[in-house]
Amino acid sequence: MKKNRVIQFSLVIVIIILFFTTYYSGDKDEIINANKNSSTENASKLTEETSNIIEGVNYTGSNNKGTFFEINSATAELKRNEPNLSQLQDVFVVIKLRNLRIIHIEADAGIFNKVTNDSEFFGNVKITEQDNVITCDNLDYYNSKNLLQAYNNVTYAGKKGDLIADQVLVDLLNNEANISMFEKGDKVKAKYKN
């Protein structure tokens, strides 16, 4: 009886050893390590320039003057060497002022500074506020100053008329605009409606 138990115990040990040597051999470790090395190389190439690409991005914020903003973007790219800046694509912005005015901004691309909450937009920029529409190539939104600066190929269309200029500075708190050309000899083209 003791002999049978010793033989059974020996067979179980042999089976366990065969199982481990078959399924945990060194060849598989080498294959796994090779796959890990290739994925690490790809990841390091990605992180040299870009740390993250995020889809469906939403940034919100406000300032001490009662202005609230919401920036929506199809994608945001965060650069490793500039972690406070988000490179945005297909951007839509809503700015709500304390006097209940709402401004909508659309652009092909933009840059959002997560520290200052300031933004730059470029490419087919369109600013809409009630019946007023401004289109331009570039727009800077300075959240801390409540200032919009539209420049390069600026056109305005509204109830009171149309105009073409190089630059429009809009003070959002005082509801004032400064319209100008870059060259002193050039004049703003305006057409008033009655």
Give the uncertain stretches in residue-range form.
Answer: 27-40, 42-46
Average pLDDT taken over every residue: 83
Query: Gyration radius, to the nearest Å?
Result: 31 Å
Q: Assign an overall shape.
A: rod-shaped
Number of helical segments with 4 or more residues: 2
Question: Please, how many domains?
Answer: 2
User: Helix- and strand-based class?
Assistant: alpha+beta
The number of strands is 10
CATH architectural name of the largest domain? Sandwich
List the defining traits of the structure above.
2 helices, 10-stranded antiparallel β-sheet, alpha+beta, 2 domains, lipopolysaccharide transport protein A fold, 194 residues
Q: What does this molecule look like?
A:
Strands 1, 2, 3, 4, 5, 6, 7, 8, 9 and 10 form a ten-stranded antiparallel sheet that branches. The chain has two helices and ten strands. It is 24% helix and 53% strand. The radius of gyration is 31 Å and the shape is rod-shaped. The termini are far apart. The protein folds into two domains: 2-48; 51-192, lipopolysaccharide transport protein A fold, CATH 2.60.450. It is α+β, with helices and mostly antiparallel strands and 194 residues long. The protein has helices at residues 2-23, 26-49, and strands at 50-62, 68-79, 85-96, 102-113, 119-129, 132-142, 147-158, 161-171, 176-180, 189-192.
